[in-house]
Amino acid sequence: MLLALAIAAVSTLHPRIYVRHDAATVGRGITVTELRARLADPAFARWRAPGNFSGAAGAMERAARYLETGDAADLASVREFLLTHTFSYARNDVGGFLAGAEMAGAFDWVYAGLDARDRAAAMANIVTTCDSSRGFLERGGPDINHNYTYMALNTVAVCGLALYGEPEPYGTRAKEYLVLARRFLEPPGMVLDTWHARQSAWAEGSHYTFHETLRNLVLLLQAYRTASDTDYFTGRDFPALAGRFLIASTRPDFTFIRTGDTSANRGQANLTVPLTVEMLAAGVDDPAEAARLRSFDDALLEHYGDRAVYPAFGWGMRMFYDPRAPRTPSYRTLPKAMRLGEGTYEQIVWRNGWNPDSTHIAIIAGDHFTDHQHFDKGQFLIYHRGGLAVDSGAYDGMYKAGSHAGEYAPRTLAHNCLLVYDPAQQFPGGYTNDGGQLVIRGKQHHHDWPTYLAHRAAEGLDAGRVLAYEAADGYDYAQVDLARAYGPKVRAYQRSFVYLPARDLLVVFDRVASPFEKRWLLHFQDEPEIRGSAVTVRRPEGGTLEVRTLLPAAAAITAVGGPGREFLNPFNGINYPPGNAATAAPSREPGAWRIEVVARDKAPEETFLHVLAMSGAPDARAVEGIPGAHLRSAEGDEVVAFPAALPAVYRIASPQAARHLLAGLPPGASVTIHINRRRRAARVGPQGLLRFDDGTKGSRTIQIRLKP
Asked: How far apart are CA 96 and CA 105, in angstroms?
């Protein structure tokens, strides 16, 4: 009965993986003749550079070259590799998951050059390798949200497609692989449903999200598209959304935001990323989305030049790159404010433009899925001519209590978050108390999306929740509830963000209820200069961040960092440097400094209000009466305020009129606005925002009251 689930039709001809036999009657994609014609096209010349190709990836590149030219040396190299190598997860770790798909693709491409004996020997090794991935999917506890599942699934699917129709026992084994792959892909709550539910927003840091998870998913879907009558791209929204998530996660310097476990080189948007983008563009239904993806890939290729694509993946660019396909509309027509993974991962990205000098802000606010995430709900990152507010630490392994990998990099301490220090708190697994969010480990056991949803609350995976979000002309706003991330030591905690793109100002407001000491952190790559309540950080690339602490009114601001203190836990006085210094290369932006803002007068409920300016020092003053920032400039004043409740009464003074934005009000409430003696009616927006101009100069008192 299970074999009846196999896909309806697989091409009977080789090649069929990513490139099709000229006589193929099923599948979509270029043919061998079309591939060979590209050898004479200058647009593809850069993707056939000389190289010393080794391993399974190298065998695939040489197999593609044999398919293009029939070179005997390429055939001999691939034949030797296929006949002498097997891989497994147990022996080769992640490489054991990846190798099976690459071996199967290489086999498919050199098929015509192998005799029956060589084919049988190669298929035996492919099956041995694939069975490791099969075993993981069937018995290894795969998680629908974890990269291992997608690596193993790619191998199982591509091996099934490549071996389909071959003599026994391989033909039957191929059908078994395809049944297993379909069981993971198609049923309710499995892969395709999960990516749709998450709106293609993935949480494992750029190291795994883009270089491994998304790449492997797109590879297997394109293999189905070319080898069979099954096109998983058609009629689905997640490929286009995946492309948007990738673009949104890329800073103006064409590197990825540093979130989760990200190594130094995987922060770069090159190596395999351009191929993933081209495969997405080749598959998405919407021509406009395809054009945006291709225009974005053009920008990647221009930026990285000869380093754009790992040479062993040149085959993919020769097969999927389409230099003559439309590039308009450009990716620069995408919204500058994006909320990605609404209700799930919740990554918010704001920018004020698409130019190299533009500002890029990223906020992490949602669920916890896998161990490659960090304990950083409420984290925000700022890029402007260099990383200004950075994700500190380095990807230096995992599960190592007493080390950088356990005590610093994934912990709240390494992020632009709040620490709440309960000296009696015990963290699981022997982890040190950093005053941060709960440590969640070992929860990667959700075989499908419904299982994840069923466990979400009980396992504390719904750590952050976006309460309100609005992107409008002149401002962007988000309010996040973070109390669950910290556990019982925090009674209530909401963090709000307001970005004013025209002024390039970010206002961050925290209201936290807890009896314990609270420290507000902001991490930098370079040493900050502190002058009272003002902090300045300058980057060699030309970026400058000006920070103003408006609340607490009596705050101690301390710089922590420098040699021997870059990764310091302030509560035990221990520095936790990475075991391998190379993992903290400057390209990772691992941070070397931070500021800690602590209220001098500790209270059960405290508020922190900061103004961060990326384009010049702000004239920022605290509003009298309620938590708020009065931002003065020659272009006009802005007031951004966060009243705890209504009625709210506050005062400002200025020689010019001001525009007011009040956040956190009852959504939809009817209110009256009193400005000195003038009064008018208004209605709070659906996200709890009230926006109005006061039309007054000099001193004024503003009252906001609920309408009777």
From this structure: 15
Confidence of residue 151 (pLDDT cuts 50, 70, 90): very high
pTM (2 d.p.): 0.97
Q: Which helix (H) or strand (E) holds 671?
A: strand 670-675
DSSP string, 194-228: HHHHTTT---SHHHHIIIIIIHHHHHHHHHHHHHB
Residues 234, 365: contact at Cβ < 8 Å? no
Query: Are residues 325 and 407 located together in one domain of the fold?
Result: no
- The reply to whether 8 and 95 lie within a common domain is yes
Mind listing the pLDDT tens digit for each residue in 559-574? 999 999 999 999 999 9
Together in a domain, 213 and 258? yes
Q: Residues 535, 462: one domain?
A: yes
H or E segment and range at residue 75: helix 72-84
Together in a domain, 190 and 73? yes
Are 24 and 13 in contact by the 8 Å Cβ rule? The answer is: yes
Whether residue 661 contacts residue 684, with contact meaning beta carbons closer than 8 Å, is answered with no
pLDDT for 584 beyond 80? yes
pLDDT in tens, 67-98: 999 999 999 999 999 999 999 999 999 999 99
CATH code of the domain in which 605 resides: 2.70.98.70
Q: Which two tokens stand for residue 578?
A: 């990475």
Average pLDDT of the residues in 583-598? 96
Give the CB-side neighbour count of residue 333, counting CA atoms within 13 A: 11
- Domain end marker among 585, 619, 653: 619
Residue 692, domain CATH: 2.60.40.2750
Q: What is the CATH number of the domain that holds 248?
A: 1.50.10.100
Which residues lie closer than 8 Å to 451 by C-beta, 6 or more apart? 144, 189
Bond from prior residue into 142 cis (ω within 30 degrees of 0): no
For residues 62 and 57, give the distance between their C-alpha atoms in angstroms, rounded to a whole number.
9
10 Å CB burial of residue 84 (0-12, 13-18, 19+) is: exposed
- All residues at 6 or more sequence positions from 221 whose CB lies less than 8 Å from its CB, including other chains: 232, 233, 239, 283
Same domain, 325 and 386: no
Q: Domain check: are 609 and 660 in the same one?
A: no
Give per-residue burial for 307-323: e unless 16+ CB within 10 Å, then b: ebbbbbbbbbbbbbbee
Which pLDDT band, with edges at 50, 70 and 90, does 675 fall under?
very high
- Domain end residue (candidates: 333, 358, 387): 333
Find the domain containing 707 and state its range. Answer: 623-708
What total number of domains does the chain contain? Answer: 3
DSSP 481-521: E-HHHHGGG-SEEEEEEEEETTTTEEEEEEEEE-SSEEEEE
Is residue 319 a contact partner of residue 28, using CB atoms and an 8 Å limit? no
Please tell me the distance from the alpha carbon of residue 448 to that of residue 437, in angstroms, as a whole number.
26
Are the beta carbons of 126 and 159 closer than 8 angstroms? yes
CB 89 within 8 Å of CB 96? yes
